[in-house]
Specification:
The complex is a heterodimer.
Chain A (H helix, E strand, L loop, with lengths): L4 E3 L2 E4 L5 E6 L6 E7 L6 E7 L14 E5 L5 E5 L8 E8 L8 E2 L3 E5 L1
Parallel strand pairs in A: 2-10
Antiparallel strand pairs in A: 1-3, 3-7, 4-5, 4-8, 6-7, 8-9, 8-10
Chain B lengths: L3 E3 L4 E4 L4 E7 L7 E6 L6 E6 L4 E3 L2 E6 L4 E6 L8 E8 L8 E3 L3 E6 L1
Classes of the chains: A mainly beta, B mainly beta.
Chain lengths: 114, 112
């Protein structure tokens, strides 16, 4: 009966390295979102998956960012050649794609690029 | 024009005060509207849905004005525990889309 689970909860990486962030949505939720939030800032939309439809990638800031969702469940956000400006909390949310549905967020992955 | 716009604040109000936040959205085809709350260093959580007729939940009242494309949240008798960032959320982009679009949030600080 778990909520949205994200791992790792914290990640420190060296500039230039690649990182993978994982999101396990709530079972049965076909909609999945990735956001990032820099310290003291608002949510920045990254990508949206809905079922088998083509994802909305309009929020990905550069081609270093990519995400996939395997089997309509677990999602992985990959950042290649990390930069210091990538440091932020990366939040994942999932929901049923219905009117008035509630989106449930994970607790996020805090990424620090040094 | 941003899809969902909010005044970032901060709104600093004394305990017991009434405070109101507004939010405007650009997608006239949006069908569903929400307010989420985010506490410091926590994930956002649903506060309340916003219905066309307006709705109230205790000290919180939400209103929707489709003609002007704005949503409001009124908090009466503010408590210290109301201090948080309030996020306006609408569905879209695109007609018929259930994708949720979040505003950047309005920060509220209730002071003793």
């Amino acid at each position: 009966g778990a909520g949205v689970s994200q791992s790792p909860s914290n990640k420190v990486t060296e500039k230039g390295k690649d990182v993978e962030l994982r999101c396990d949505p709530i079972s049965g939720h076909t909609a999945l979102y990735w956001y990032r939030q820099s310290l003291g800032q608002g949510l920045e939309f990254l990508i949206y998956f809905q079922g088998n439809s083509a994802p909305d990638k309009s929020g990905l800031p550069s081609d270093r960012f990519s995400a996939e969702r395997t089997g309509g469940s677990v999602s992985t956000l990959t950042i290649q050649r990390t930069q210091q400006e990538d440091s932020a909390v990366y939040l994942c949310a999932s929901s049923f794609p219905n009117k008035n549905t509630e989106a449930f967020f994970g607790q996020g992955t805090r990424l620090t690029v040094v | 024009r941003k899809e969902v716009e909010q005044d970032p604040g901060p709104f600093n109000v004394p305990e017991g005060a009434t405070v109101a936040f507004n939010c405007t959205y650009s997608n006239s085809a949006s069908q569903s509207f929400f307010w989420y709350r985010q506490d410091c260093r926590k994930e956002p959580k649903l506060l309340m849905s916003v219905y066309s007729s307006g709705n109230e939940d205790g000290r919180f009242t939400a209103q929707l004005n489709r003609a002007s494309q704005y949503i409001s949240l009124l908090i009466r008798d503010s408590k210290l525990s109301d201090s948080a960032t309030y996020l306006c959320v609408v569905t879209g982009p695109g007609a018929g889309s259930y994708q949720l679009t979040f505003g950047k949030g309005t920060k509220l600080s209730v002071i003793p």
